[in-house]
Amino acid sequence: MKKFKNNLGSKSRVMLSLFMITGASHAASIDGSAKIEESAKVERAIINSAQKSQNIVSDSSDHAFELRTEIEALKAEINGLEVYENHLNRLIDSQAKELESAESQLNQISSTRQSIVPLMYQMLDTLTAYVAQDMPIRKDTREERIKSLNELMVQADISDAEKFRRILEAYQIEVDYVNKLGTYTSSIEIEGVVRETEQLYLGHISFIARSLDKQHYWVWVAKQKMWVSLDTVLHNELNHAYSVAEKLATPSLLKLPLSVSKVNQ
Question: Into how many domains does the chain fold?
Answer without folding.
Answer: 3
